[in-house]
Amino acid sequence: MISIDGTLVSAGEGGVYGERMVGGHRVWDPYRSKLSALWYLDKSTDLSSDAVVLYLGAANGTTVSHVADYVESVYAVEFAPRPMQDLLMVARKRKNIVPIFADATQPQRYAPLLEAADIIYQDVAQPNQAGIAIKHLPFLKKGGVLILMLKTRSVDIRKSPEEVFADTCEELSRAGLRVQKSLWLSPYHADHAAIVCERL
Length: 200
Description:
Blueprint: E1 2-4, E2 7-10, E3 21-22, E4 25-27, H1 34-41, E5 52-56, H2 62-70, E6 73-78, H3 81-93, E7 97-101, E8 117-122, H4 129-135, E9 140-151, H5 152-155, H6 161-174, E10 177-184, E11 192-199
Parallel strand pairs: 5-6, 5-8, 6-7, 8-9
Antiparallel strand pairs: 1-2, 2-4, 3-4, 9-11, 10-11
Enzyme class: transferase
EC number: 2.1.1.-
InterPro entries: Fibrillarin (IPR000692), SAM-dependent_MTases_sf (IPR029063)
């Protein structure tokens, strides 16, 4: 990942969402992107130029556009029609984004469109977030990385964020993933945690 004077940036064409430019690079705002927040909290987070990324919960493509600046290709899955329109606009300017209008809870419907991924990145605000990630493990290469952005309040509001966090890590481990690191994304995103796992 590229930083200029401690500011995370990406090297792509600007003007996607009004982002600032520094030294000809796009500033990647940690308050708008959980992946950027993860980098600020843990500098070991990285994206390689030959990586294939399956991105679940692409929304309007803000983070997708930055990821696409770094990697070979991004398969971006989004379910909501309005954000999908924005994502399509982003994809028109970046030829390595494959937008997929689909429900991430039903990967069998878009499986023929995918290739094996080096990284699965998930930012889906639904109750069964670990289950959705596990459904996509057949698309993740052995040794590949799952980055799950866990929105604890969407999972179970009766449990504390810490309980949801612990339960999710346990469920992912039972599915054959090794949790490499896990951390809360405060102060950038309240009640959100990042869980980074390796597929064994």
